[in-house]
Amino acid sequence: MTVTAMSRYLSTVVVSLFAAAGTACPPADDEIEVNVLSILASEHRKDVEPKLTEFAKQARKKDSSLTGFRLDRSNSEKLKLGETKKFPVAGDQVVEVTINKERNEKGRIVLTIKPPKLAQITYECVCDKYFSMATQHFEGKGKEREQLFIAVMAKPCVNKK
Q1: Phi-psi region of 142 (alpha: psi -120 to 50; beta: other; left: phi over 0)
Q2: Chain-centre distance for alpha carbon 89
Q3: Is residue 138 a part of any domain in this protein?
Q4: How confident is the model over 36-46, as pLDDT tens digits?
Q5: pLDDT digits over 71-87, tens only?
Q6: Which of 28, 55, 67, 85 has the largest count of CB atoms under 10 Å?
Q7: Interatomic CA distance for residues 95 and 115, integer angstroms
């Protein structure tokens, strides 16, 4: 067997093992853990919390004027398919998260999010990744002004056979 043929064979075996290792969609009554982060970004502060280094790097690609990033709050709740929950974020704002009643054809969780001052967004979760967005909500004034970003992740992430 050539190296290329062996690589293809091993790739097929590994994929087959993962597919057989229980990646089926769990029952509809399973609880889904939803994590919501409230992140405040500033044009005047220079500090970036260590946990937000990668987030700051990605956010600066869209808006290079943002220099300071801090985690305002983190919330985690377990929800069932079809359930909606309001998560508090910066100030008196909330993010409404709905776990759609059914997973998509790939077995992934689909969320509908209603962030502050934005239209609702429906998206398919990516395993172990946060979905983040800038909102139009700002806290403070002048040099203390910070823009609210939110990041949402849902688990468990499994794929259908």
Answers
A1: left
A2: 15
A3: yes
A4: 999 999 999 99
A5: 999 999 999 989 999 99
A6: 55
A7: 5
